[in-house]
């Protein structure tokens, strides 16, 4: 520890601290622009100059290490003179256009100029003008306002992992710009808007939408990925104007992914469903809630009496709240059916009934920083979990060694030590090889159940290096990604991955597909007494379906086949925040329910953290919160357990009085009685990623996100040699046929895709006709 | 080019840059002596300390002391860098050293590598002098082929690799940490210090950076002894130094003279002020050094201490001579433009301030000056100086301050009368001679 005196206050700080860190401890505010606690130190704005005893000139607080016995004055005459001098320089070329600047009212330069700026400028020459840059659909630029603090440059390089911005040219001609004619394509790009201390980088979708002081700031939780980023939703006149991060060091830190930040655009869009509708004689009629709900109740009752309760099934989006999930399963079970599921993209359900608890990440997100070995199996990690990937990226810089097994090796923008790339059908077998090598390496026995499968498997060099890496770690984690969970061999992959975690004395975890993937298990929104799972429900038609918050053809693995199945049902009740063309075709009743901004609820994230949120705006039109709709429906059906009037009462049923997740319920343990490897596929296998902005109903309706590079229509991606072997042509088009359908898509060469397989995204209208996310396909040139 | 010294002496012959020629002049004897006599690294550094050699790049920091800052027992690579990126207006000495005596630098660097335990060195050569770069590459190849460079030098267990790296034309890359960034392939921008290069330098490893002339002086110090070198100059100012004399003299060029030689003698060597005109002012150490009026300058001797006492800096030894036909406002305008254009743009005071300085001087020169402009200039320079990451902010400010200090009346005249104090015809006549 080091002794330091700042503005007369004594304190002790750890070795290696900077004066800035010490000053913030004693509450002395040192003005700054380029300094940011999560970025490297640049010391270029010079605003934080402070007086240091024995130093002949003022020193930058952000870059000056504390030495023992140091005396610092942050507001002495010398310090303030230096700070004012720097402020004058910052302002001479800065346009004084605050009245028309989107940053006005929340601008660091504007705020600090009140304290440090002159009343009148001494600079009377012409001011610098800098051309604006096109950074894509999310970030708007007014580069003349830029003060060259390079926070955005450091963010893209250090946090997002790819240097997408740089400072070109010298001196006064210096400009922040992307590479020539390139846009910012990072999935974290929106953070540079928050980082920019002036109005040079502002939000393009929000541009000129409101003034900072006109909006209310309300807390919320992201409904997208399984991290559960904390949000500040800014609201004006009951309209969500924009979304900013709410700092939470345990989860999203001070960042947000672009999906979290810009998906709100869908909430104000044209596609919102705002009134209940009933289809009568093939025509949609808008109606009131009373009639709509009575119609639904009567429909469900008549199906039950005519076909039995087992003819009723419900599918619920894993992006729904815990309360909604609970009530929907209570409703289905109250009717006497066990057909309920939230695992809409899962293919293999053979692990059901073998689980000891709700599968989860196996550790807290904040613990990622202390891992030294990580093995990620079956994941499009960077796009599926942008901010978890960011944490891993920082951990890699500190020495974390990451291994990956996936059919597609994408650039995750951090160093991946070992990469195993195999065809989808070979994943489980390859993992057996890793487990076998690991057992040998560590002198342990492979669990009995895997021994016979392991007999026929030889670990290759890549599998050996993964085994060696894991064996040499002290803090090991093995994670199953979304892709592996959706895989046709998901249960086998999970079983053997758990064995690998056991052998490496590491923790096993499941990354989780959606905001409430853990919550779905806790709420019991899955079959428990032999009911039909999501895949079964969409295969053989039931008589009645309740669809809660999903686009059937995009949010399920069945794709277009789901729509065909639903079309054969007697009645389909769709509760959704959005209209959709296909729902108009297959549904009989459309009930508008509130998205996360208009309702209260809980999302349980991957680490098992229950995060409650409340409405930030009034519901649009006739929209009602889902939990209220289900409550009324339950009462209309005469079911027990639906008489409550607060959302907290529902929570209490699921979580108990503490309203927190009982950690004992989180358990990844899986009983494995038998284990056998399937035969390798012979033909061309399809690998389906779920594109980041297609993954859920809100994100896929956000216009700005759809305009990004990640929002582009899917293409067939395959290695150059596979493209040649299949007789395709890069840049051409190909017809891909599955057992259930065919689609025509453009061909793109991507050598990150394993030989002999193709990568073709799911969750998209262009590919949903294929049905199923996996399996063999035939490909021909068009 | 003229020499009373050690680096440029004996270079009258043909192809003096060849290895054979260098060896004939006593080249690589110092290195052979170290290897043969197994002189310890500490003793080499002690000898350099004894010589009182001060950094020839401009700052004049004692070289032996700098070498002793390198961590001894550092596990892993340590680097050596030679700063041949001379870009300061008025300076052209390193170019001639590399052009005519490249092996002196190579030998100096090998010895430095030996003394500090560096396994690899880079010579960062100014980008615009590509033929010098090519010649240095040839010299390196000669040295490698002769077993003087590379693995197991002269059969010893000491190995040292040396590479040439050419710059890309930015003045700022002559700043030692910007030079390191540039070698690393990044944009040449100075790093903030601490950490200093001796602990966190090239690729994050301990690194020492010295000027070309500094390295070129090392072989003599080892061969003849530190005392002999010190005796060439005067106490605390050991050895001889190259002065690049330019401007209004009859024989501009590089002059290697003992430190402590009176300026009057140097001026005489350079053929005196051209056209028999009166000396007006001298910038004694490169364009960033404060200008000194003739009367002060004529009393100075050419060494670090004397020039410093007179209120300027010996700097890199670039002596810019200005005669009475010079308009000091115009001279400053040109200098300010240089710093405005060469600021790297990284930190605020320099990025914004150098342009401001230039614009104000420019408007004074063009008859648009205002009465309070001189106060404004002094205030802006005060706000730049000492507030920036590197010394470029200071370098841009010192000429402005010194020009106003010593020639304030010319600036005041300009502002008041919208024209030069030095009549136009005198200026025109002066520049005519310059063209001839």
Strand order of the largest sheet of chain A: 14-13-24-23-22-15-16
In which range does the helix fraction of chain A lie?
A: 25-40%
The average pLDDT value of chain B, as a whole number, equals: 94
Say how many strands of chain A there are. 32
Distance between the termini of chain B: 20 Å
Largest sheet of chain B: 6 strands, mixed
Please state how the strands of the largest beta sheet of chain B are arranged side by side: 1-7-6-12-9-10
Unreliable stretches of chain B (pLDDT < 50, length at least 5) are none
**Quantity of strands of chain B, as a count:** 12
Q: What is the rounded distance between the termini of chain A?
A: 70 Å
Shape of chain B: globular
**Rg of chain B, Å, rounded:** 22 Å
- How much β-strand is present in the residues of chain B? 5-15%
Query: Of all protein chain pairs, which has the greatest interface, and how many residues does each chain bring to it?
Result: A-B, 35 and 32 residues
Write up what this structure looks like.
The complex is a heterodimer of chains A (782) and B (436). Chain A is of the alpha/beta class and 782 residues long. Helices cover 27% and strands 18% of the residues of chain A. Chain A is built from 24 helices and 32 strands. In chain A, the strands form eight sheets. Chain A has a seven-stranded mixed β-sheet. Chain B is an alpha/beta fold. Chain B is 46% helix and 13% strand. Chain B is built from 18 helices and twelve strands. Chain B has helices at residues 19-24, 29-37, 41-51, 63-68, 93-100, 102-116, 130-145, 176-183, 212-224, 226-232, 263-269, 294-297, 304-309, 328-342, 348-365, 373-384, 392-417, 424-435; strands spanning 2-3, 79-84, 120-125, 161-166, 207-211, 240-247, 253-258, 261-262, 279-283, 292-293, 301-302, 318-323. The longest helix of chain B is centred in the C-terminal third of the chain and has 26 residues, at 392-417. Chain B is globular. Chain B starts with a strand and ends with a helix. The interface between A and B is medium-sized, with 35 and 32 residues.
């Amino acid at each position: 520890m080091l002794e330091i005196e700042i503005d007369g206050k004594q304190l002790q700080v750890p070795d290696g601290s900077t004066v800035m860190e010490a000053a913030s401890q004693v509450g002395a505010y040192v003005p700054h622009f380029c300094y940011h606690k999560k970025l490297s130190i640049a010391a270029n704005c010079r605003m934080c100059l402070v007086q240091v005893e024995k130093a002949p000139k003022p020193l930058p607080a952000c870059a000056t290490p504390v030495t023992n016995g140091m005396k610092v004055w942050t507001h002495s005459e010398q310090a303030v003179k230096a700070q004012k001098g720097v402020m004058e320089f910052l302002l001479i070329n800065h346009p004084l256009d605050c009245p028309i600047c989107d940053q006005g009212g929340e601008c660091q330069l504007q705020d600090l100029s009140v304290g440090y700026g002159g009343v009148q400028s001494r600079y009377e020459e012409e001011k610098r003008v800098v051309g604006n840059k096109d950074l894509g659909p999310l970030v708007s630029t007014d580069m003349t306002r830029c003060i060259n603090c390079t926070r955005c440059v450091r963010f893209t390089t250090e946090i997002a992992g790819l240097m997408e911005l740089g400072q070109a040219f010298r001196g006064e001609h210096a400009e922040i710009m992307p590479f020539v004619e390139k846009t910012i394509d990072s999935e974290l790009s929106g953070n540079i808007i928050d980082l920019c201390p002036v109005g040079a980088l502002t939000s393009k979708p929000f541009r000129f939408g409101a003034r900072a002081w006109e909006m209310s700031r309300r807390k919320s939780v992201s409904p997208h990925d399984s991290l559960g980023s904390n949000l500040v939703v800014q609201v004006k006149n009951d309209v969500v104007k924009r979304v900013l991060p709410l700092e939470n060091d345990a989860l999203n830190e001070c960042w947000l992914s672009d999906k979290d930040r810009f998906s709100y655009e869908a909430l104000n869009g044209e596609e919102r469903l705002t009134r209940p509708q009933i289809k009568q004689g093939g025509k949609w009629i808008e109606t009131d809630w009373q009639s709509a709900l009575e119609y639904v109740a009567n429909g469900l009752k008549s199906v039950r009496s005519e076909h039995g309760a087992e003819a009723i099934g419900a599918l619920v989006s894993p992006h729904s709240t815990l309360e909604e999930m609970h009530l929907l399963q209570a409703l289905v079970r109250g009717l006497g059916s066990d057909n309920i599921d939230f695992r809409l993209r899962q293919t293999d359900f053979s692990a059901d009934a073998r689980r000891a608890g709700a599968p989860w990440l196996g550790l807290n997100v904040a613990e990622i920083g202390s891992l030294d070995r990580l093995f990620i199996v079956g994941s499009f990690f960077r796009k599926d979990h942008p901010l978890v990937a960011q944490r891993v990226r920082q951990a890699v810089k500190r020495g974390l060694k990451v291994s990956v097994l996936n059919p597609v090796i994408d650039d995750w923008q951090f160093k991946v030590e070992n990469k195993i790339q195999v065809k989808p059908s070979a994943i489980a077998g390859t993992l057996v090889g890793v487990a076998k090598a690991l057992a040998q390496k560590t002198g342990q026995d492979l669990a009995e159940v895997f021994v016979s499968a392991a007999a026929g498997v030889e670990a290759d060099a890549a599998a050996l290096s993964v085994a060696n890496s894991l064996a040499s770690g002290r803090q090991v984690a093995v994670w199953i990604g979304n892709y592996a969970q959706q895989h046709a061999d998901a249960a086998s992959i999970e079983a053997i991955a758990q064995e690998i975690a056991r052998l490496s004395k590491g923790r096993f975890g499941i990354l989780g597909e959606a905001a409430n993937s853990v919550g779905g298990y806790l709420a019991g929104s899955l079959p428990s007494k032999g009911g039909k799972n999501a895949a079964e429900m969409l295969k053989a038609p039931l008589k009645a379906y309740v669809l809660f918050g999903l686009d059937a053809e995009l949010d399920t693995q069945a794709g277009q086949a789901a729509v065909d199945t639903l079309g054969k049902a007697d009645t389909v009740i769709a509760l959704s925040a959005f209209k959709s063309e296909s729902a108009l075709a297959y549904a009989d009743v459309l009930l508008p329910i509130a998205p996360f901004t208009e309702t209260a609820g809980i999302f349980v994230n991957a680490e098992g953290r229950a995060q409650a949120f409340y409405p930030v705006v009034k519901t649009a039109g006739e929209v009602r919160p889902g939990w209220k709709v289900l409550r009324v429906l339950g009462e209309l059906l005469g079911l027990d357990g639906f008489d409550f009037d607060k959302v907290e009462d529902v929570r209490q049923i699921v979580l108990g009085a503490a309203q927190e997740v009982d950690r004992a319920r989180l358990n990844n343990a899986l009983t494995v009685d038998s284990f056998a490897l399937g035969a390798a596929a012979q033909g061309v296998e399809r690998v389906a990623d779920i594109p980041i902005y297609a993954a859920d109903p809100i994100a896929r309706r956000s216009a700005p996100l759809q305009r990004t590079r990640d929002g582009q229509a899917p293409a067939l991606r395959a290695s150059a040699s596979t493209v040649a072997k299949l007789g395709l042509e890069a840049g051409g088009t190909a017809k891909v046929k599955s057992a259930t359908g065919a689609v025509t898509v453009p061909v793109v060469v991507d050598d990150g895709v394993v030989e002999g397989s193709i990568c073709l995204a799911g969750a998209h209208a262009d590919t949903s006709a294929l049905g199923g996310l996996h399996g063999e396909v035939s490909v021909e040139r068009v | 080019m003229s020499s009373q010294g050690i680096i440029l002496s004996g270079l009258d012959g043909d192809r003096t840059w060849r290895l054979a020629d260098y060896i004939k002049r006593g080249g690589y004897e110092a290195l052979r002596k170290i290897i043969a006599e197994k002189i310890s690294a500490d003793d080499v550094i002690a000898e350099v300390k004894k010589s009182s050699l001060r950094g020839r790049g401009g700052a004049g920091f004692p070289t032996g002391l700098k070498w002793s800052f390198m961590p001894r027992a550092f596990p892993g690579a340590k680097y050596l860098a030679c700063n041949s990126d001379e870009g300061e207006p008025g300076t052209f000495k390193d170019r001639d050293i590399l052009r005519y005596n490249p092996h002196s630098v190579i030998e100096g660097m090998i010895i430095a590598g030996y003394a500090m335990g560096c396994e690899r060195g880079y010579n960062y050569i100014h980008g615009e002098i590509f033929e010098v770069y090519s010649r240095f590459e040839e010299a390196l190849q000669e040295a490698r082929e002769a077993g003087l460079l590379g693995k197991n030098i002269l059969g010893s267990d000491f190995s040292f690799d040396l590479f040439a790296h050419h710059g890309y034309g930015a003045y700022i890359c002559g700043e030692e940490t910007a030079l390191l960034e540039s070698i690393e392939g990044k944009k040449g921008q100075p790093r903030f210090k601490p950490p200093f290069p001796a602990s966190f330098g090239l690729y994050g490893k301990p690194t020492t950076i010295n000027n070309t002339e500094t390295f070129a002086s090392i072989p003599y110090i080892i061969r003849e002894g530190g005392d002999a070198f010190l005796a060439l100059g005067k106490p605390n100012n050991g050895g001889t130094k190259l002065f690049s004399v330019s401007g209004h003299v009859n024989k501009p060029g590089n002059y290697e003279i003992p430190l402590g030689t009176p300026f009057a003698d140097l001026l005489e060597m350079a053929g005196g002020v051209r056209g028999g005109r009166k000396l007006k002012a001298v910038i004694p150490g490169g364009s960033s050094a404060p200008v000194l009026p003739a009367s002060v300058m004529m009393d100075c001797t050419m060494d670090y201490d004397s020039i410093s006492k007179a209120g300027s800096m010996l700097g890199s030894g670039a002596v810019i001579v200005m005669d009475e036909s010079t308009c000091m406002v115009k001279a400053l305008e040109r200098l300010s433009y240089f710093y405005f254009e060469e600021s790297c743009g990284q930190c605020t005071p320099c990025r914004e301030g150098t342009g401001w300085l230039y614009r104000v001087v420019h408007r004074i020169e063009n008859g648009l000056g205002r009465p309070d402009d001189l106060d404004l200039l002094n205030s802006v320079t005060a706000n730049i100086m000492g507030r920036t990451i590197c010394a470029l902010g200071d370098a841009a400010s010192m000429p402005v301050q010194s020009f106003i200090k010593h020639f304030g009346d010319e600036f005041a005249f300009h502002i008041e009368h919208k024209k030069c104090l030095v009549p136009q015809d005198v200026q025109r006549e002066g520049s005519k001679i310059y063209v001839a």
